[in-house]
Automatic annotation (TrEMBL):
InterPro entries cross-referenced by the UniProt entry: NAD(P)-bd_dom_sf (IPR036291), Sc_DH/Rdtase_CS (IPR020904), SDR_fam (IPR002347)
One GO MF term attached to the UniProt entry: quinone binding
Pfam families tied to this protein: adh_short
Keywords on record: NADP
Family, similarity comment: Belongs to the short-chain dehydrogenases/reductases (SDR) family.
Species in which this protein is naturally found: Lasiosphaeris hirsuta
Protein name per the record: Uncharacterized protein
Length: 262
């Protein structure tokens, strides 16, 4: 297993689901981990679960990633405890209701774009400015993208646009900051079980759109077409390796168990 000993990692949306699995992976690899989430109850559960094994190696903070002041406080919090930040994992995100453009409400559009795209923009902005100033200079941003980053018909319009934007943010950041030792990579993930993203379906989905998307691809089968959360976490730790990160800079890597088929 790749070691992340001595590195400090910030993971957003990490008090459950995929973010929690990524944080677990970095902790197991020896990193200091700072996790944030909007949900204080989930944060409390994470603290309780980690305190015996990882005391002194982690911090938690309730943070709204769409609030620049709150995000700055998160980074300041990490710096005060661990002295630097080496890796940012932009995991926080929400799903839409599979609505096409004609039925997507402005409220839902704004909410999805704000969390899924404005959030990574704000955290990346603060991260790269820190990475440029700290000694030694450098750092890595891992953006959690989706099949919807590259395929136009895998979700509703809001989620599709937000994740396509994440891929563009990744590439633009990689192009400008790569020569400075600051790298940006995206993982374009497929279906996963055990994430919090399906919370969005609690109020219902656009049935016609969902059915059309489903008919356009091999059927979703839990355990067969889905990527294990722990496997995503291992990949994130691998990408943080000092040799791998610069060579993967700008990459937007499908990690989707070939679902839908390439």
């Amino acid at each position: 297993m790749v070691s992340a000993q001595g590195k400090t990692v910030i993971v957003t949306g990490a008090a459950g689901g995929l973010g929690k699995a990524i944080a677990d992976g970095f902790l197991a690899a020896g990193a200091n981990v700072v996790v944030c989430d909007i949900n204080p109850q989930r944060i409390a559960v994470v603290e309780e679960g980690w305190k015996a094994t990882y005391a002194g190696k982690f911090l938690t903070q309730q943070t709204d990633v769409t609030d620049e002041t709150a995000v700055q406080k998160l980074f300041d919090f990490a710096l005060a405890k661990f002295g630097r930040v080496d890796v940012l994992v932009n995991n926080a995100g929400i799903m839409d209701d599979f609505g096409p453009v004609g039925t997507c409400s402005k409220e839902l559009w704004d909410r999805v774009l704000n969390i899924n795209l404005n959030g990574p923009y704000l955290t990346s902005k603060i991260a790269v400015n820190l990475f440029e100033k700290q000694e030694p200079v450098g750092g890595l941003i891992i953006n959690i993208g989706s099949n919807a980053s590259a395929y136009g018909f895998k979700s509703g319009v809001a989620y599709t646009v937000s994740k396509a934007g994440v891929m563009a943010l990744t590439k633009n950041t990689a192009g400008f900051y790569g020569p400075k030792g600051i790298y940006s990579i995206a993982l374009l993930l497929g279906g996963m079980d055990g994430t919090n993203i399906t919370d969005a379906f609690a109020t219902g989905i656009h049935t016609e759109m969902f059915q059309q998307v489903s008919k356009s691809q091999t059927p979703y089968e839990p355990g067969k077409t889905t990527v294990p959360l722990a496997s995503v976490a291992k990949y994130c730790v691998f990408l943080s390796d000092d040799d791998i990160a610069p060579n993967a800079n700008g990459s937007c890597i499908f990690f989707n168990k070939n679902w839908p088929e390439a």
